[in-house]
Amino acid sequence: MLVITDATVSTLVQHAPYQTGGGEYGGYDLRGILRSMSKYTTVATNPKETVQGVQLAVKHATTGRRGPACVILNDPNALGVLDPAAPPFIYPSQGFLHPARTLAPDDLVQQALDTLAAAQRPVIIAGNGIHAARAYAELAELADLLGIPVATSYKGKSAFVETHPLALGMLGIYGQPAANRAVQEADVLLVAGCHLGAAETLNETPDLIDPARQTIIHLDIEPRNAGWVFPVAQTLIGDARTLLGQLVGAARGRGLTAPAGRREWVAAVKAEAGFFKPPEAASDAVPILPQRLVRTLNQAVTPDTILTLDAGSNRIWMAHLFQTLQPGTIWCPGGIAGMSWSAGAVLGAKLAHPERPCVAVTGDGGFAMSLHALSTALQYRLPVTYVVMNDSQLGMVVAGQGEHRFASEFVDTDFAGIARAFGCRGVTVQDAAGLAAAVAEARGADLPTVIDVRMDPRERYTKVVSPLAQQRRSY
Q1: Of 43, 396, 437, 453, which has the fewest beta carbons less than 10 angstroms from its beta carbon?
Q2: 221: Cβ–Cβ under 8 A, 6 or more apart, which residues?
């Protein structure tokens, strides 16, 4: 992402004029704010710095581990006519933009393969790096070739299709029991594009991942991420698509195949632990249960539908229970959680993929924070669908407060009516049948659609917290 913004710095900057972002006393520090959440931030004070700053920002954003880069303009000095004949010289941008796809040394690739071939119960943990590299085919090919099951991080969800026989689903605090159990039992972990954050490791409990009893092979484009949380036995540094492709090519060159027993072990773990089949998913109770909503949505969307998730209990239900049908179809906020993230993110998804259905799943609290996204959707003719899990409360906050609630409950809000007031389609849904019909109708609509789903406010996300996390109270 390239962010270009204005610090609104005037000649009175040291006297704190209105909206100045230079960081002086009385004003806000725009550079400091953006530097805290970006790969690169620069301030341009003249036209040549503006050009060079944008060139460098694009380079930083697209090189190595991709991320946002920012250029802050000190307008009006940063805009104007520049002299190309005087230094510093301006060159065409293409010469600066040659991101390399680093190959791992062959001996390290062979060592990793030796470890995987000798393992009794290896597991792949796939993270957001698979999405960034678009390494879906290579990941699936390696898993199939060697019979290695795949668990994903929260941000890595949909990196591997969860209907695949080798899929374990998401691991961690809100993960599938099968994923957590398989990782517990694994003797070798191939971690691809995931730094193993607290949510994935149950706050680093050795009951789940323990380098003293497990061999960890870490693949990452950022050397600092490999071995960040746990000491690792082997590292391969580079683009995930390139590295996984190297492993596949080397495995085929050596004629490696899946040892006997691996696939059977995976099937047994999934059968014993359960896999995307909570009993509540079949309930016809009204108001609708979140488990039933997710199952209905899973059945109602097409496999190529892009879904954006939000912060709060709504994303936990989705991340835990939605069984992805195609790679690269789930996008979710991380970092500082990003409440109301899905409302704008789904618009970006639709702009990038106008031919595909795009659905945002959000809670009532998050959606209320970004209602203006409906105006943007209309303005740019983006017929996206918003599924609002409406239980008139902040679900995660209420679960944490127990019986002593404060500032966590809302008045009953008609989001379907608000949508119609904007000029969008608005539908209120009370049960699973109504949700399925509303999703199908929204897919053929030429306007944005808000589906206001009336949820059971008594159902708590804590039902899906891993027993290991519950024992340690690490959630």
Answers
A1: 437
A2: 64, 65, 102, 129, 132, 133, 193, 237, 238, 239, 240
Predicted TM-score (pTM) of this structure: 0.94
pLDDT at 193: 96
Contact 393, 363 (CB under 8 A): no
Confirm if 34 and 72 have CB atoms less than 8 A apart: yes
Nearest C-alpha neighbor of 169 from the set 375, 348, 330: 330
CA 366 – CA 45 distance, rounded (Å): 37
Query: Rounded to whole angstroms, how far apart are CA atoms 314 and 162?
Result: 19
pLDDT the model gives residue 248: 98
Provide the pLDDT for residue 380.
97
The β-bridge partners of 429 are 453
Domains and CATH numbers, the chain: 2-96 (3.40.50.970), 106-273 (3.40.50.1220), 279-464 (3.40.50.970)
How far apart, in Å, are the Cα atoms of 191 and each of 181, 228, 333, 454? Answer: 16, 12, 21, 39
- The pLDDT of residue 51: 96
**What is the model's pLDDT at position 337?**
67
CB 73 within 8 A of CB 9: no
Could you state, in chain order, the average pLDDT of each consecutive group of 10 residues for the chain (475 residues)? 88 82 89 94 95 96 92 89 93 86 92 97 98 97 98 97 98 96 98 95 95 97 94 96 98 96 96 93 96 97 97 95 97 85 97 97 96 97 98 92 89 97 98 96 96 96 90 73
DSSP 245-265: HHHHHHHHHTT--PPTTHHHH
The C-alpha atoms of residue 412 and residue 435 are separated, in whole angstroms, by 19
Q: What angle do CA 330, 318, 158 make, to 5 degrees?
A: 30
292: its two tokens: 């039933």
- Token pair 């954003």 is at which residue? 61
What span, in angstroms and rounded, lies between the C-alpha atoms of 238 and 243? 6
CA-based nearest residue to 362, from 323, 398, 395 = 395
CA 182 to CA 164: how far, in whole Å? 15
